[in-house]
Amino acid sequence: MQVQKKLFTPVQIGPITLKHRIVMPPMSRLRAQWPSGIPSDLMREYYSQRASDGGLILTEATAISPSGRGYRGAPCLYRDEQLTGWKRITDAVHAKGGYMLAQLWHAGRTTHVAVTGEQPVTASVDPAYCADPNIFVVTPTAFRDRRRIERWRRPRSLLSSGSTVPPPSTRSVQASTASKSWPPMVI
Fold first, then answer.
1. Cα–Cα distance between 124 and 107 in angstroms, integer?
2. pLDDT tens for residues 144-158?
3. Spatial distance between the Cα atoms of 60 and 70, rounded to a whole number of angstroms
4. What is the pTM for the complete model shown?
């Protein structure tokens, strides 16, 4: 009974006071519009259905740049129209008294040119991983083209010249009650 009592007591996280300690963890739904990465109406419905007064939702993995996309249907947060899509979702969650934190993500070497439109980029290029002939990835068109997998392609290092990775966005959407200094990913 003591655990149940604590589960439904408030907790302070920075400037946010949650009314209970039940937090929805990130779960990849892959329902963003393709190929734009704009959060969809289905995502808005999904998150707003799970919002609770004083509760916290952690978003699914959200790509921070075109080269960081890992899957078809994964949402993004590096263009204005994507930001607008997330704003619609956070407004729906805030209307129910809930809070959201974005799980910012870069898929690194696990992505594929078929998803990103460019050679994958990663912080570390492991020669052993790159040489492994058994490394394959599922691409957005694999099932349509009746191929289950494609040979994985060697990523380029972040340290290489000619990087096409844009600088981090200076924009952010913050919960109305959150201070601008905590945390940088509050939406």
1. 12
2. 665 555 555 566 666
3. 12
4. 0.73
